[in-house]
Predict the 3D structure of the following.
Amino acid sequence: MSLATLVSGSRCTSGSADAPVALKKEIVESMPVAGFAEDTVLILKYHQFAKEYLFQDAEKAMFYSKHVLRLSQKHQWNKGKILAYNLLSTYYLLDGSYDVLRELSNETITLSKDMPLYTAHAKRFLAESYSEYRQWDSARINYRQAIAIFEKLGEDSAAATCLDNLGNSYREKGMFAEAIPYYDQAYARFDKMNSDWGRATVLQNRGYLHVVKKEGKEAEELLKRSLVLFQKINNRYGELNVLNDLANIYCLSQQNDLAIETAARALDYSTIFHSSQQTNWALLSLARAYKNKKMFQEALDYMEKVIFNRRMLHTEYVQRQYTMYQLSYDNQIMDSEIQAKIIAEQRTVQRFLIGFSCLIIGFAAFLWFNNKKLRRKNAEIREAMARGQAIERKRVAAELHDNLGGTLASLNWYLFGIDKKVLSPEEQKIYESVHQMVGAAYREVRSLSHNLMPAELEEHGLVMALHRLIDKMNENKNIEFTFNISGMSHRLNNKTEFELYSIVLELTNNIIKHSGANKASINLTENHKNIHLTIIDNGNGMVEPSRQGVGLKNVKNRVESLRGKVQIIGQQPNGLKVDIEIPKTIV
């Protein structure tokens, strides 16, 4: 229940002032059940009783509010505490106990961090306290912060109340011209909501502005309009407040009989409401009116009651302070007991977590050592595979060079031994073709055996092997190849060098055979994290994925074996770019 709903709802209760509440069951259980759910039901029930009594009988409202607070403290339920603090804040605001109001507001702000509506109400109450102590700037800041929250949440009634309070703040400072626009805004909002309580409240506050300005006629007119609205909605506290203001006006204007009649009505209402402050104002108006009529004995009697009542106000103030300190002490004791219980539970959980963490750490260490052993084995296997591949490639290269190459060389030699002159012209053409084919096959076998495992790669490393490869391709004169290198001050492992060499060989062969390019560049770059290989040509451009041959698939497989990434990007307007990135963690 928001305070805006609480205030507007309570001030606008229908029916008589006594009957609806008096018929309710009002027995507070002396031994509330231990369960949170059951106590929550009691908290909400007592909160409803306190809310309905708030503007009818202050003592009963306080009685139920304290029970709401005690049960909420029992379970450390912040929402219940805030409900109690809102009720108590409203009461202490009406009763003029602004020191207690400030303490309650600050406590509510602390508890309502995730409940902006209650934070806004607490800021409004805090602003009322600042206004009473004439700390105008602090009051206005808190009013405006509350208005911003209320408007964001769509709480129009609460926002209008704050605007009305801002008007009061300027009125108390004597800035009457600045106060009136805030009263107008508040009245317009309440009028739009058709809130009789809101209209009555603004009319009363604006009427008191004219009292301060000693404009009795204007003040009386506004206060009478306010009184009619409060009577319409049976709001006893509103009637009481307006009657005391009217009695004050009548005393100032020497309408003594009317002042006595009005103050007497206010005195009856204040007795029913149990408000010492309102009772004191009514008695003071009676004493002044009788004094104005030269009826000094009656004036003295009422002044003695004023003095007695002021003493009672001081006693009530002390009692309230004691009650607040007692509640705060009880709250702290309960918090300490709950915190001790929580600490004990946390220690038990902590011991369990420490033991469980030790088991996890032990198991993690076991896995780490096993994983380290597996990684070492895998590295050994990879190294062995790389060595095996190198040996096998050397063997295949030797077989190609020595056997197939030797056979083709012999065949070519025998072809030279044939006398072309004895052949017919047609046979000579066939001879020339066969001779050229055998020569080409021999050169291809030599190139293939060399590329399978070039001596430069094994002896001098990747950079030297690539330089030799590019130089050989440039002998063709059809495509101009350039080789750019950055970094690469140290050799890589055998597998990485061989795979990168094979990738370059595959991609440059593709350029020669399929691209139609006349320029191409091979760029090899090393940084502290990666090895970058980029090959760019100005040929036919992007190859459709569905038409990619075995060569490109082999390139992708080789890159994946090095845990790298490959991108094939079409260049504008023509050409192709192959970008390969190899992490240095494996090199």
